[in-house]
Design a protein that fits this description.
The protein is of the alpha/beta class and 724 residues long. It has four domains: 1-109, Methane Monooxygenase Hydroxylase, Chain G, domain 1 (Up-down Bundle); 120-327, Polyphosphate kinase middle domain (polyphosphate kinase like, 2-Layer Sandwich); 354-524, 2-Layer Sandwich (Endonuclease, Chain A), CATH 3.30.870.10; 528-712, Endonuclease, Chain A (2-Layer Sandwich), CATH 3.30.870.10. The chain is 37% helix and 20% strand. A hairpin with a 5-residue loop joins strand 26 and strand 27 (682-684). Helix 1 runs antiparallel to helix 2 (33-64), helix 1 packs parallel to helix 3 and helix 2 (33-64) runs antiparallel to helix 3. The termini are far apart.
């Protein structure tokens, strides 16, 4: 029996606490107002996905396996109860922050939120015209009908529900008889006459219109209202013959934890499209709503079979995730973070061929402190260089108008051998990836749609080039996706190299995942689900074996999530053996630190700041012969057991030194760092009196800025001699 069977925090409760830390940033007065609002929108979006995936899974488990307990000893029902209690608590804090702090703060800055009760005659006139011209034609009221017929309500779509009262004079005589026979009379009478209830209608708020509606103003202040308030204000126009008695705003999150049929190899895209469509009508898991009508709420709950704990009533605007448009308003730079530039790394000459540079040295890229342009340049040069024969890469997520896709299309049209592994099972990006796949196939790219029962999450690009001395291969490996947009605010590292052993391994990797090669051993790259977890356990075990009191071992790691019980148990053993362990964990952490006799040598820190920490770095001291790795994989069962991931070494000493220094900086942050306690609480690091302020993301940005400034002002050391 596992000696640490209950020595873990709940995965899902830990994830909620990550969002509590994000919410804490929204509450910090030192953070600019619009950035605080951005953090609120992030929390809302995160909760949507959490309920669609994790809560949906737990609800299903309540039926299929109610006695199954997680590492914290909780069954699904107990987890759901704790989740509901904590999320209700955080949602309350979220709205206290919005209504009591952020919106009043914006009002002081001349950006005013106007509710219907505050509309002036001028506002009414403007909004009336706007409603009739832009909104009214898009609205489709759905009457619930007699007998409790429940309308179709799409996943995460904002809706308004209206309680109506019949205001039509019912005809009598022969006309009444005719209308009764046709059923029209029943509709005119509404549900009220026959069932004792007033009729109810539901309207979807158009997603094609910006939710933030700016109002006319001549006093220099900017006033806005919300589209849903406009619809509610002028709803009477939708229901001639009825009086609107009450209204209610709501949004439903539905089960998105629906697996594709892995056996449908012949029409896998069709199977995936069916999954996408099914999300719009799958089982509801949460109702987020605003309004006073108990009648409407009762109808919605009964219609969607939701319990009281599944309902989240809020005292203000719902679906805060859509308020990101407000975050990006023009002319309010003083309410946002100071702009941080990203820089072309000074270590990479801009006037030298990347091929020549990579023959000489490896290149480390650290976005968003570095520009993503070197990656795009590498891809573009590969696609446009006539000496390049083949390009192979994985695509998990990419941007909406990806320059990478356009480059690959050019390469295929020019006759290059281009192979792309598109992961269709990238949840919530499936439609985009299907679209890219079709585009690439149309121009001759060989597209592989992932691997049955596994997700290809590795980030790797291989370029095969003919040169004067023969064929040479170049490799790009990354901790983050090939996405030029998220590279602006996701912290990731990547490595460009022409190392022969890594290039050989990359070739084997692509052969393996294409399905035409048996699994072969690799020298430098480590692949999940084959040998990545065993390698990590071996590295931890070696640290245990070589740790002595005079020279204790050391493990330093940076991950997004730590939830694999085998890895956690190995770290506990290492701690008991005296190994010093520093963990930087952005999100989920099931490991319990600081417990005597189990984890007293383990420290866990989390940094939440303007950029999303996404890098995975693993450093094992190994008695002075240290080993350093980067990876696409978190320390979670899904990454280590159910995904294709890569762990790759940092071999060049100059690059290793840089990565080690960056890694250790995170444990000095005294501005944005939270420390995990043995009781599961995260405490914000408080700077001691007289202690120098240290914010790791700011330090890293300023360091790159200073390097660039020094480089640009260096005196010219070489001269161009003109002969004529």
């Amino acid at each position: 029996m596992n000696e640490n069977v209950f020595s873990y925090f709940s995965r899902d409760l830990s994830w909620i606490e990550f969002n509590a830390r994000v919410l804490d940033e929204a509450r910090q007065e030192s953070v600019p107002l619009l950035e605080r609002l951005r953090f609120l929108t992030i929390v809302s979006s995160n909760f949507d996905e959490f309920f669609m995936v994790r809560v949906a899974s737990l609800k299903e488990q309540c039926s299929s396996n109610p006695d199954l307990r997680d590492g914290a000893g909780l069954c699904a029902r107990e987890q759901l109860a704790k989740i509901s209690a904590r999320v209700h608590e955080l949602v309350k804090v979220q709205y206290e922050c919005l209504l009591g702090d952020i919106l009043p703060g914006l009002a002081k800055e001349g950006v005013l939120f106007v509710t219907p009760s505050m509309y002036t005659q001028e506002h009414i006139g403007f909004l009336d015209a706007f409603f009739m011209s832009d909104v009214f034609p898009l609205l489709t009221p759905l009457r619930t009908g007699a007998g409790g017929v429940f309308p179709s309500i799409g996943n995460l779509r904002l809706h308004a529900a209206f309680l109506l009262r019949n205001n039509i004079a019912i005809p009598s005589g022969p006309l009444a008889s005719f209308l009764e026979k046709t059923g029209v009379l029943a509709n005119l009478e509404g549900d009220g006459e026959k069932s004792g209830a007033d009729p109810l209608a539901i309207v979807q708020i158009p997603a094609s219109i910006p939710r933030v509606v700016w109002l006319p103003s001549d006093d220099g202040k900017r006033r806005f209202t919300l589209l849903d308030d406009v619809v509610r204000t002028f709803a009477q126009r939708l229901f001639p013959g009825f009086i609107v008695e009450d209204s209610f705003l709501f949004k439903v999150a539905r089960d998105a934890d629906r697996a594709v049929d892995e056996d449908r190899d012949g029409d896998f895209i069709a199977a995936m499209q069916e999954v996408i469509v099914s999300r719009q009508s799958s089982v509801p898991v949460r109702l987020l709503c605003s309004g006073e009508s108990e009648t409407i709420l009762s109808f919605l709950r009964e219609g969607m079979r939701l319990g009281e704990d599944d309902v989240y009533r809020v005292p203000g605007p719902i679906d805060l995730s859509t308020l990101v448009d407000l975050v990006n308003i023009e002319g309010a730079d003083h309410l946002r973070n100071e702009s941080w530039s990203n820089y072309w790394p000074v270590e990479v000459p801009q006037d030298v061929s990347l091929w020549d540079e990579l023959k000489r040295t490896d290149i480390l890229l650290h976005v968003p402190y570095h520009s993503y342009e070197p990656v795009l340049r590498f891809i573009n040069e590969a696609c446009d260089d006539p000496s390049v024969l083949a390009i192979k890469m994985t695509l998990y997520r990419t941007s909406g108008d990806s320059p990478i896709i356009r480059a690959l299309e050019r390469a295929a049209r020019s006759g290059k051998h281009v192979t792309v592994f598109v992961e269709l099972k990238a949840r919530f990006d499936e439609e985009r990836n299907i679209s890219w796949a079709h585009r690439l196939e149309e121009v001759g790219v060989i597209v592989v749609y992932g691997i049955a029962r596994l997700k290809v999450h590795a980030k790797i690009l291989l370029v095969v080039r003919r040169e004067t001395d023969g064929i040479r291969r170049y490799v790009h490996l990354s901790t983050g996706n090939y996405n030029d947009r998220t590279a602006r605010f996701y912290v990731d590292m990547s490595l460009l190299t022409s190392n022969l052993e890594i290039a050989n391994d990359a070739t084997l990797f692509f052969n393996m995942i294409s399905g035409y090669s048996v699994i072969m051993s690799t020298k430098r790259l480590v692949m999940a689900p084959i040998d990545l977890k065993p390698r990590l356990l071996s590295l931890i075990g070696r640290e245990i074996d070589r740790s002595v009191p005079e020279h204790p071992g050391r493990i330093v790691a940076k991950v997004n999530s730590l939830a694999d019980p085998e890895i956690i148990d190995a770290l506990y053993r290492a701690s008991r053996a005296g190994v010093k362990i520093l963990l930087n964990v952005r999100g989920v952490c099931m490991l319990v630190p600081g417990v005597p006799g189990m984890s007293e040598n383990i420290t866990v820190v989390s940094v939440i700041d303007r950029y999303l920490e996404h890098t995975r770095i693993f450093w094992f001291e190994n008695s002075g012969a240290d080993e350093l790795y980067l990876s696409s994989a978190d320390w979670m069962p899904r990454n280590l057991d159910r995904r294709v991931e890569l762990l790759f070494p940092v071999l060049q000493e100059s690059v290793r030194k840089t990565v080690r220094e960056i890694l250790m900086l995170y444990f000095s942050d005294n501005e944005k760092a939270h420390y995990l306690q043995s009781d599961g609480k995260w405490t914000r690091r408080v700077r001691a009196k007289g202690e120098k302020r240290f914010r790791v993301q700011e330090i890293l940005h300023d360091a790159e800025k200073k390097k660039r400034e020094l480089f640009e002002h260096e005196p010219q050391r070489e001269f161009t001699v003109r002969r004529r």
